[in-house]
Amino acid sequence: MFRPLELFVGLRYTRAKRRNHFISFISLASMLGVALGITALITVLSVMNGFEQELRTRILSMTSHLVVTGPGGKLADWPDLVARLEGHPQILGAAPYIQGQAMLVNGGLVSGALVRGVLPAEEPRVSEIGAHMTAGALDDLVPGEFRIILGSELASALGVGRGDRVVLITPKATVTPAGILPKLRRFTVAGIFEVGMYEYDRNTAIVHIEDAARLFRLGKAVSGVRLKVADLFAAPRLNRQLSAELGRGYWVTDWTQQHANFFRAIRTEKTMMFIILMLIVGVAAFNIVSTLVMVVTDKRADIAILRTLGLTPGRVMAVFMIQGAVIGLAGTALGVMGGISLALNVETLVPALEQLIGHKFLSPDVYYISELPSELELTDVIRISVAAFSLTLLATIYPAWRAARTQPAEALRYE
Question: DSSP secondary structure string, 61-91?
Answer without folding.
Answer: TTS-SEEEE-GGG-BS-HHHHHHHHHTSTTE
